[in-house]
Amino acid sequence: AKQDGRGTFRFFEPALDAAARKRRQLELDLREALATGQFRLHFQPIFDLKTERVGCFEALLRWDHPERGMIPPAEFVPVAEETGLIVAIGEWAMHEACRQAIAWPDDVRVAVNVSPIQFRNSGFANIVFQALARSGLPPKRLEIEITESVFIEGEGPIVDLLHRLRELGVRIALDDFGTGYSSLSYLRSFPFDKLKIDKSFVDSIASDESAVAIVKSIIDLANALHMETTAEGVEEDRQLATLQRHGCSSIQGYLFSCPVAAEDTLELLAKTAAA
Ligand code: C2E
Ligand code: CA
Ligand code: CA
Ligand code: CA
Questions:
Q1: 235 lines ligand 1 (CB under 6 A)
Q2: CA–CA gap between residue 5 and residue 197 (Å, rounded)
Q3: Which domain of life is it from (predicted)?
Q4: pLDDT-based confidence at 2, cuts 50/70/90?
Q5: Side-chain half-sphere exposure of 266, counting CA atoms within 13 A
Q6: Could you give the CA distance from residue 167 to residue 128 in angstroms, rounded to a whole number?
Q7: Mean of the per-residue pLDDT values for the chain?
Q8: pLDDT for res 11
Q9: What mean pLDDT do residues 44-55 have?
C-alpha cells in the first residue's frame, strides 16, 4: 500500500507542479508588465439612443505582451484577482482612464470596470479620489461598473462605500445584470445610475421570446427606479430594433463599434457626430 501511495504521488506531482509553475510565471509576468508599462486601455463607445450620440466610453484592459501581442482580460484578470495584483493593475487603469477622458468633450463619460477584490480593498475610495484629482476630470464624468457579485458577502459595507463614491459625484453602474447573485434586494439599498443588460440576454432576443420578456422587464424595472439601461454585445440590427422598441437607453456592441485604442477615440467621436 505504501508503494502504491508513493507511486500515485510521483505520478501526479509533476502535473500539479507544472500548473502551479505556469501560474507562478504568469504572476511574475504580470508584475513585470505593470512595472514596465505593458498594459493598455481600449475604449468601446456606448451609443445613447435618445441623443443619438456617444455618451460614454467603457475602458477595457489589454496586455500588450512583447512576444504574444494583445492579450484579452479573460486570460489574465482571474490570476490577477487570485494574487491580489488586480488592486495595483486596477489603480493604474483608473488613473489612465481618467487621464484619457480629459481629451474628450465635456458631455462624454468614461466607465471603468472594478473587480470585487478592488472594491473590497480599503484604499479604493482614495484611489478614485486621487485619479480624479490628478487628471482634473469632473467626477460626474466617471462611471464605475461593478457586478452583483460584490454583494455576496453582505450589503452593508458595500452600500456605505457606494454612497461615499456617489457623494464625490461619481456614477455607479451595475454590470452584467441578471447573471450573478440574484437577489434584487440591493436595488432597494442603493440607487444605481445604470443597469447593464448582459450580452447573454441580448444574444437571444432576435430568436427567443423569453429573452425578449426578460430584457423588457429589466428595462421596465430600471425605468421605474429611475435608472438608465445599456444593452451589451449588440451585434445585429434586429437586436437594436427590439431594444429600441422597449425603451432601452443606450447600446454597446460590435454593431456600433468594437473597442478602439485611445488615440482613435476622438476620430470616432467626430465621425459619429457628423453622421
Ligand atoms: P465586460 O465588462 O462585460 O465587458 C464587455 C466585453 O464584451 C468586452 O470584452 C468587450 O470587448 C466585449 N464586447 C463588446 N461588444 C461586443 C459584441 O458586440 N460582441 C462580442 N462578442 N463581445 C463584445 P473584453 O474587453 O475582452 O473584456 C472582458 C471582461 O474583462 C470584461 O467584461 C470585464 O469583466 C473584464 N475587464 C475588462 N477590463 C477590465 C478592467 O480594467 N478591470 C477589471 N477588473 N476587469 C476588466
Ligand atoms: Ca463592464
Ligand atoms: Ca458587462
Ligand atoms: Ca458581460
A1: yes
A2: 51
A3: Bacteria
A4: very low
A5: 8
A6: 12
A7: 92
A8: 58
A9: 97
Is the separation of the CB atoms in 222 and 229 below 8 Å? yes
71 alpha carbon, closest ligand:
1
The count of residues in the chain is 275
Residue 181: predicted pLDDT: 67
Residues 223-244 pLDDT 10s: 999 999 999 999 999 999 999 9
pLDDT at 192: 96
Output the nine-digit C-alpha cell for 249. 437607453
Choosing from 39, 76, 77 the residue with most ligand 1 atoms within 8 A of its CB, the one to mutate for a pocket test is: 77
Please tell me if the CB atom of residue 96 comes closer than 6 angstroms to any atom of ligand 1. Answer: no
ipTM of this model? Answer: 0.98
pTM of the model: 0.94
Closest atom, ligand 1, to C-alpha of 81? 44
Which residue type, as a one-letter code, is found at position 99? R
